[in-house]
Description:
By secondary structure, the chain is mostly helical. It has helices at 3-11, 16-29, 32-43, 45-61, 68-83. The chain contains five helices and no strands.
Amino acid sequence: MTKAQKIAAAWASLPVSELTDQVRLLVKARDAAARAVWSAVREDPVVAARVRGALAGLKAEYRGHRDEAMWLMWIGQVQQQLAVQPVAAVVVEDVVPELEPVVESWEPQAWEPRPQPAAPRPVHDAPAVLFQEPAPVAK
């Protein structure tokens, strides 16, 4: 049994206040040992539920705190680590048969220039645009 598994097993019998204090310390640590503990906690559904409850309590405790953003980010990362399921090895078989590439003959087409647009519209066809100076503001 690793140290992380021993910690997770000990957390199963801790009172809520002590568990919250232990979780707070480990959330703040954010090191490799903490990640090992979170993965050990994830394996035991009862301890994982208790730790998720402690994390929710910590989240509520740090609302309005000057370091709220930092703590909420750390708690969110721990919650993600608890939610991640270990990836099982996936065996992928090659089901596509060997295919030979098909090369079709391609002949370039002759370039044709675009037709020239019709003559531009005469200037007097454009509607008149009037600009008016804004009225002075009365004081």
